[in-house]
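Let's do one together. I've listed all components of the complex below, 426 residues spread over two lines.
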Amino acid sequence: MDFLINGIILITWKQMLMWIIGGILIYLAIDRQLEPSLLLPMGFGAILVNLPLSGALDQNIQGIGQVTGIIDWLFKTGIEASEAMPLLLFIGIGAMIDFGPLLSNPRLFLFGAAAQFGIFATIIVATLLGFDLKDAASIGIIGAADGPTSILVSQVLKSQYIGPIAIAAYSYMALVPIIQPFAIKLCTTEKERRIRMKYNPESVSRLTRILFPVVVTIIAGLVAPASIALVGFLMFGNLIRECGVLKSLSETAQRDFVNLITLLLGITIAATMKAESFVTVRTILIMCLGLLAFVLDTVAGATFARFLNLFLKKKINPMVGAAGISAFPMSSRVIQRLGLEADPQNHLLMHAAGANVSGQIASVIAGGVIIGLVPGFL
Amino acid sequence: MNEDLISALKLTAMGMGAIFTVVLVIYFAVRLMLKFTGRKRQSADKAQ
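Okay, and this is what the predicted structure of the assembly comes out as:
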């Protein structure tokens, strides 16, 4: 009857620590409702893959040989082989996004670009801390504030830290309402936060809304070909939304499809959360660097707006620049709240939403650019 | 300075440059689209 206690004998303290981490993720998902659709499967998966002799992972069984485990199979098929899961998720994200506020005020595109600086600043800090360039780039992309992009870039660059990177990306996205106010107050004055902005949107025709995803795909494909899978799937989802003849598909993409892929992605990422590779000092460093990336993104966006204000007659509220990080729609809601805190008549939501969706486009372009550039440095 | 750090600095310059380039091209394309589709809309409004 030894086989009954084999599992108990083989438990390590690192595996037990992973159970606790899994439990914390489940707690955050259920009690705090932080990205529950992802953190809950990730938390449960962390427990699943850290049971000794877990049948959810590939096993070499005496007398039988190699037996495939479902989590390892999902990872190899859905992420490693083709990056299918994070890419498919972009169809749903694209279908969710209304680019109207951005199209009606295209100047806001610039803030999306500026707020990606945190990614690169974090890459620099990560290399200073001893990470090699491909791991540093994978860590920096946490600053894209976009979980699927982080997973995809770290997978393409073959980073060994996909698990902690995914956790950091999704956790900090959920913590945007805490991180951004801190970072914004760090780099703006009360007077700047009170700046009011009139909302005079240009009219956006249905034709423009339909042409936009096609044109962006072509431009991104021509100028930054490495970004085309990311941008293309995002824009394909948006075209489904805007075409007006696929309402049912659009609704499915926004809800059921996204939920299904997120659920599978969450539990699949658990394959990278095996105790022996996850419980290291570097995991803690990655969590700290992820936080730094979010803070620097926010500071970069706000600082860019302040810089533009040097030349503009009609001033821009720097907080709108901070909304250029991708975490959509949390960031724009945070900016609206902070605007009202500074001045109860200061409604910034539509400006912030425009900058926020611009950040969504810029962050996937950043992901593609990193995938395209990093191999050239290796 | 170590090699990775130098590469990271170059990556930053090239990466931000590339992102701004793509975004600016998209910005001008959107401006063009708005110009053409906006005119149509105005003329339609006048016709009404």
